[in-house]
Design a protein that fits this description.
By secondary structure, this protein is of the alpha+beta class. It has one domain: Nucleoside Triphosphate Pyrophosphohydrolase, CATH 3.90.79. The chain is built from three helices and twelve strands, in the order βββββββαβββββαα. The strands form three sheets. Strands 4, 5, 6, 7, 9, 10 and 12 form a seven-stranded mixed beta sheet that branches. α2 crosses α3. It is globular and about 55 Å long.
Amino acid sequence: MRKKIFQGRVLSLSVYKVSLRGRKVTREVIEHPGAAAVLAIDKGKLLLVKQHRFPHGFVLEIPAGTLNKGESPKKCAFRELKEETGHEAKKMSPLVKYYPSIGYNTEIIHCFVASGIREISGLELDEDEIISVVKMDFKKVLRMVLSGKIKDSKTICAVLTYAMKKKIYL
């Protein structure tokens, strides 16, 4: 049995009463439509966004956003790259997908690698977004991930997965 107790703009919260191995348990679940994130490397530089993430302040991360209803993760990745960085990509290749908070949250983040990057416009931000674009050497970002300076899970997962697949070591 499911009882929705909150419906917000991006997510909802439901309480489930389920039976697991003969035991009745209650689970509180944040329901989220999922997101796409983009690892975009342009002329050896990784495109990052410095974004205000309340309550943590400004965070350095890869461009990303929530899937719109009926939108594919790949289409979302193309859209978010353009909106948050003013760049477009010729191609988006799947990199990794993961659950950032598997114990209580339905969100899945689909990470892509963008190729054929070119700047086409200014930023197209939502009213509540405070973002600036930062270009940084990939190895510097990798060092920031490994030292704990970058704390954003999608950025950590995408950078480490890409580094391992491409055999990029420090």
